[in-house]
Amino acid sequence: MLWWIKIIKALHQNFLFQRGNRLTRGFRGKVAVVKLRVHVFISAFKVVASVVVRQVRPLLVVTENEEKLSQKEQELKQVSDRYEKLRLDHDELGRQHAQVTEEKTVLAEQLRAEAELSAEAEEVEFV
Q: Model-level pTM greater than 0.85?
């Protein structure tokens, strides 16, 4: 709590104007005026503080929601970047698979052709 609020509350409770357990004679009227002014000040301060709190709380909620939204946007960007990278990798692997399959087909035809030539060469030798 702020030091000046403590002093005002102490004034409000007459602690600063007591000598022993009695008020000093010259301060009785002044104490009543000070008490009234302090009471008015504290009431006004409470009203102002409550208005500030009522106005600031929604702003704090909005700020918190904006922070959460920005975090979610960052996460979405990271996930979309990762997705794009994986999609490009998948496309590249698909092209490589098609190329390897084509090479396999070509090699299988060459092997079949060589096998036929080899079989014909063996038949010629036996004849």
A: no
